[in-house]
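Possible race condition, two jobs.
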Amino acid sequence: MAPRENFLSLIRREGFEYIPVEFILCPALIERFKKETGSDDY
């Protein structure tokens, strides 16, 4: 299934192969994450 077909079937609630997700932190949260976990790979 092509990414476009996957997205359209996800919206239509017909099933999907994967859910497209993008996770981005603002610079302040990245620094806090680094401080609390010791890792920069969130």
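Job #2 (started ~2 s after job #1):
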Amino acid sequence: MQVFIPNDIAKHATNKYLGVLVAAKFARVINEFPRDRSASGEKKLTTRALEELSRGEIEYRVIPRRRTE
């Protein structure tokens, strides 16, 4: 099992908390794609998302929340 250090995640995100949120959102996006069910050694989606984020392969942008008045 691979361990992700918060500093590795924070290198490609603004901070470690945002990095985890981006990886979780990306894992949900990956989950919507069809997968090959015969692949027995497939990694978990969250692990795959964290790996790609730590390598800097995920591009994202933060959209500010609109205030409702």
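Helices lie at 6-11, 16-32, 45-54.
Logs attached separately.
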